[in-house]
Amino acid sequence: MKKVALSILFLLLGIIIYSSYKLIIIEKENIKLRSVINSVTKDNKTIKNSNINYQKQINILKDEKKDKWEELEEWKKTKIEIEEALSS
Amino acid sequence: MEKDKNRNRRSPIFLIVSMLCFIILIIIIIYNFYSLNKSSTKNKELNNTLNTLKENYNIEINKESELKNNIDELNNIDNNISKTKEEVFKLASKLENKITNNETKYKIAYLTFDDGPYYSTDKVLDILKKYNIKATFFTIGLDKDICFDNKNYSCADTYKKIVDGGHTIANHTYSHLIFRGLYNNSELFINQVIKQEELIKDRTGVTTNILRFPGGSNTAKSLCRNDIDKIMKSLQDRHYGWVDWTAQDGDGGYLPSYEKAWSNFTNSINENIEVILFHDYSNITISMLPKAIEYLEERDYILLPLFYESIKVNK
Ligand SMILES: [Zn+2]
């Protein structure tokens, strides 16, 4: 009886130690993930802001060089049209 | 006996304590597994969030390089236009060869407008812009400071408008005075070509090397007689190419009606690479132009501006 009780006790203790160990590892990983997420979020924000600035810059340039930009787009369309004709 | 009695007395307490310990251990295990489960779910959530963030980051990185390219394109827009134009002409040369060898159903039409610029050239440019079509303008220079068809306007700026529209600006001599000495001798003729070349360069910054003889090469040959070889040699020395035409609506001569112009035009379209002669002063041509463009496009013609390397440019 005593032996059985001790075995159960050790088994339970083993389960507790194992699950605690697992818990600590996962929590550690979660902490690491949170910090990675924070830094990626920061990077995302930075690049998003820089892209917004680039877009603004593009809009200003497009406005300044509207006719030229349209001409370039038209030439690109013509190029695609000829390429399609060549590959037909 | 005494010992047994004591053990029996301790037994229930021992059992209760053991049970309590057991229950506490079980509670700890349940709590641990509950926390483990919660942490694992959180872990999955965090991994998903991280993946989404990384995906978004990659999207933004791609967007960034695209935007940077766009900025570069815009900052070097003139170079990019020239580069794309060069590529278009190289491809067009290949297409011309394919068409000549009957290897494609597609055809090419070069719309050309002679003797301008006029006040009405603006209308032609608007129509071409609407259809996203580039054409060729064989310009002259004499009497163009005042538009022939509207004395209140100057045609001096129209040369630049033609170039800004992406069209090919080409040489039709400065004076076009066919029967007043243009073809009298080779030197005079070449001087007229150079004078117009300089005028175009001055007004647009473009140096052209494509010429159309006023009246066409046959007129030049018949009027110049012995001097034509000299003219051709001089043109060659100046790296000029010259172009006639293969189709027209007859707007250079007497045109009684729109219908006549239309039938002239449609009857003359029968080659796979057409150079079509129009004059940008002709109101009939201008009113017919949208329909003419649609007519050609429906028949698989790709409408392009002339370029030096084209097989239609004689060298
Ligand atoms: Zn002419």
Fold and architecture overview:
The complex is a heterodimer of chains A (88) and B (315). With 88 residues, chain A is mainly α. Chain A contains two helices and no strands. Helix content of chain A is 97%, strand content 0%. Chain A is elongated, with a radius of gyration of 32 Å. The termini of chain A are far apart. The model of chain A has no long low-confidence stretch (mean pLDDT 92). Chain B is 58% helix and 10% strand. In chain B, the strands form two sheets. In chain B, strands 1, 2, 3, 6, 7 and 8 form a six-stranded parallel β-sheet that branches. Chain B has a two-stranded parallel ribbon with strand order 4-5. The mean pLDDT of chain B is 92. At the A-B interface, helix 1 and helix 2 of A face helix 1 and helix 2 of B. Bound molecules: zinc ion. Zinc ion (ZN) binds next to loops of chain B.
Domains of chain A (count): 1
Briefly, what CATH class of the largest domain in chain B? Alpha Beta
> Could you spell the SSE succession of chain A in H and E letters?
HH
Radius of gyration of chain B: 40 Å
The number of distinct helices of chain A, counting runs of at least 4 residues, comes to 2
Give me the oligomer status: heterodimer
Count of extended strands of chain B: 8
- What are the segments of chain A in which pLDDT stays under 50 over at least 5 consecutive residues? none
Rg value of chain A: 32 Å
Show the largest interface: A-B, 51 and 57 residues
What is the helix fraction of residues of chain A, given as a range?
over 70%
User: Can you tell me the number of structural domains of chain B?
Assistant: 2
Distance between the termini of chain A: 89 Å
Total strands of chain A: the figure is: 0
CATH topology of the largest domain in chain B: TIM Barrel
Q: What's the SSE blueprint?
A:
The complex is a heterodimer of chains A (88) and B (315).
Chain A: H1 2-64, H2 66-87
Chain B: H1 2-75, H2 77-100, E1 107-114, H3 121-130, E2 136-139, H4 158-164, E3 168-171, H5 178-182, H6 186-204, E4 210-211, H7 217-224, H8 228-237, E5 241-242, E6 247-248, H9 258-268, E7 273-279, H10 283-298, E8 301-303
Parallel strand pairs in B: 1-2, 1-7, 1-8, 2-3, 4-5, 6-7
Helix pairs in contact in B: 6-8, 9-10
The structure holds zinc ion.
